[in-house]
Amino acid sequence: MTQDIIIQAIISGLLMGFVYALIAVGLSLIFGLMEIVNFAHGEFLMLSMYTAFWLWSLFGLDPLFALPLCAALMFTLGIATHYGIIRHILHAPMLVQICATFGLAIFLRASAQFLWTPDPRTITTSLVEGRVEILGIFLGLPQIVASVGSLAAFALLYLFITRSDTGLALQATAQDRQAASLMGIPVDRMYALGWGIGSACVGVAGVLLATFRPVDPEVGALYALLAYVAVALGGFGSILGSLFAGLLIGQMEALAGWLIDPSYKYVVIFSLYLVVVVLRPQGLFGRF
Amino acid sequence: MLKVSDLEVSYGDFQVIWGVSLEVRPGEVVSLMGPNGCGKSTIFNTISGLLKPKAGTIELDGRRIDRLPSHEIVRLGLAHVLERRRVFPYLSVRQNLWLGGYNPQARVHREETLEQVFGQFPRLRERQDQLAHSLSGGEQQMLALGRGLMSRPRLLMIDEPFLGLAPAVAKEMMGVIAGINAAGVSVLFIEQNVQVALSMSNRGYILESGRLVLTGEPDELLNSSEVKRIFLGG
Predict the structure, then answer these.
(1) What residue ranges define each of the domains in chain A, with the CATH number in brackets?
(2) Which of residues 117-176 of A touch B (CB under 8 A)?
(3) Residues near A41 by Cβ (< 8 Å), separated by ≥ 6?
(4) How far is Cα of residue B58 from the mean position of the Cα atoms in its chain?
(5) A186 — contact with chain B (CB < 8 Å)?
(6) Alpha carbon of B47 to those of A46, A189, B8, B77: distances in Å?
(7) Is residue A121 very low, low, confident or very high in pLDDT (cuts 50, 70, 90)?
(8) A33: closest CA among A177, A162, A234, A154?
(9) Contact between A30 and A191 (Cβ < 8 Å)
(10) What is the pLDDT of residues B197-213, one digit of tens each?
C-alpha cells in the first residue's frame, strides 16, 4: 500500500516535472542568450492559458487543437517584447532591465484582472479528461498529455538548438556576441528569435496546464517562481540543466507533499534552492 | 582595397583615436604597431563595425562601410580575428569553423571552404569534434584564423596573432599567415613587437596614444630614431 503511494507520488512528480522543465527552459534560453531575466515569464504563461481558455469558451476549440495557435501567438509576443522593450534597454544598467520586465509583468497581470476579472476560469470539457489506471496507479489523463507534450516540445527545442544552423548561431551568440556578429550572425535578430522561442515554450506549457488547472491573473506567479528556482538549480543558460532541475523540482514537490505535508512542499524546494545558491552558485550544470 | 581616412573614435566622451588614416592595398601584408593601450584594437573594432566612428570614413573597395553593422561587413570580404582568439568555447572545432561560413556569400561554398581550411590546418581536422576551449593556445589561434578564413575574406585582419604563443608556435603561425597571403588574401595585423611585425610585412603603421606617428616600409621604420624612442623609451 505505502509502496503504491510512493510510486504514485514519484510518477505524478515526474509528469509535472516535464512541464516545469519546459517553462524553465524558456527562461533559461533568454537569460543564456542575453543575460536578461524575463520577470514577465509567468505572465506569458498566464496569457497563454487565457488564450486557450477563450478559444475554448468562445469558439469551442479544444486546447489540444489550440496548441499550435497559442505557440505561434506567444512566439510573436516574445518577438514583439524584444523589439518593443528589450532592445532599448540592452545596454542599460541591470536595475533598469529588471524594472522593465517586472513592469511588463505587473502591466500584464493588471490588464488580465481588468479585462477578465480575478475569478478563476476552468476549461471544463476537453479531449483529455479523467484518469487512467496503469498497473494500479491512477494518473490524470490531462497530466499525462501535458507531460508528453512538454517532453516533445523540449526535445524539439533541443534538436533545433544543437543540430540546426540557426540553433548553432544562437549558441554562438550566447557564448560571444561580438565574435558571433563577426561571423555574419545578425545578433539582434538572434535575440528576437530567442525571445520568440522562449515565449513559445512557456506558451505551449500554458496550454497544456490549462487542460487541468484553472486560470486566473495570478496563476503565473507560482510557476514562474518554480522556473527561477529550476534555472538557478540547473545553471543559467543550460538547456539540459533546466530539464534535470525541472524533474528534480517535480519530484521534490510530490515527495515532500507526501512525506511531510502538502502545505510544506515549497519550503523544501526553496530550501534546496538556497543550499545550491550557497554551495554551487553557478547551478548544477552551469558554466558561469 | 581598405582605406581609412581621418578616423576619430570615442568611448562616450573619451576620445581614443585622433585622425587616423591608413590603407591596405591588394595583396599586401600591413602591420599596425604601438604600445599597449594606444588604440590599435579600437581601430580594428571600428573597421569591422563593432564600434561606430565619431568622424572619418572607412572604405572597402571604394564602398563606405563605416555605417554598416559588422554582420554585413563580413559579407563584403573583410574578416576580423579578435584579440585573444575568442573561439566559441563550448562548441566543437568543426562547429566553430562551420559558423565562420555563416554569412550568405560564404554559405554556398561552406563544405568546400571547410575542406580547404582542414587542408591548411590538419590539426584542426584531427580535433574537429573536440570542444574549442579544450584546445591549446596555438590550436585556438589556428581555429580563430580558420574560422576567419571560412568567410572567404579578401582582407583578413588579425589582432595580435602571436599573443601568448610559444616561440616555435609563433613561428609556425607566421608561416601560416604568409601562406594565407600567398593565396591572395591581403592581411592587416596588430603586433607589439616591431621586429617581428616588420619581418613579415610590406608596410607598417606606428600608433602612439591614438595618433599615427610613423608609416613606411620595414627598413625605414627599423632605422628610425622615432621608433626607438616609442618602443625603447630612448
Answers:
(1) 2-118+138-279 (1.10.3470)
(2) 165, 168-169, 171-172, 175-176
(3) A23, A26, A27, A198, A202, A220, A224, A227
(4) 16
(5) yes
(6) 46, 22, 12, 12
(7) very high
(8) A177
(9) no
(10) 999 999 999 999 999 99
Global ipTM:
0.95
SS3 B1: coil
Calpha distance B154→B60 (Å, rounded): 10
Question: Cα–Cα distances in Å, from A10 out to A16, A129, A139, A273?
Answer: 10, 21, 11, 20
What nine digits make up the cell of B207? Answer: 600608433
A contacts of B98 (beta carbons < 8 Å) = 165, 168
Q: Which residues contact A182 (CB under 8 A, 6 or more apart)?
A: B48, B50, B70, B71, B74, B79, B80, B82
Partners of B203 in the beta sheet?
Answer: B30
CA distance A81 to A39: 12
List B58's β-bridge partners, or say none: B4
**Per residue in A17-48, is it b (16+ CB within 10 Å) or e — as a string?**
bbbbbbbbbbbbbbbbbbebbbbbbbbbbbbb
What type of residue sits at position A120?
A: P
Q: Helices in chain A by DSSP H: which ranges? A: 2-34, 41-59, 63-81, 87-89, 94-116, 141-163, 165-175, 177-182, 187-210, 219-234, 239-259, 265-279
In this structure, which amino acid lies at residue A212? F
A179: nearest CA in chain B?
B86
Q: What is the pTM of this model?
A: 0.94
The answer to whether A105 and A42 have CB atoms below 8 angstroms apart is yes
- pLDDT, residue A130, reads 87
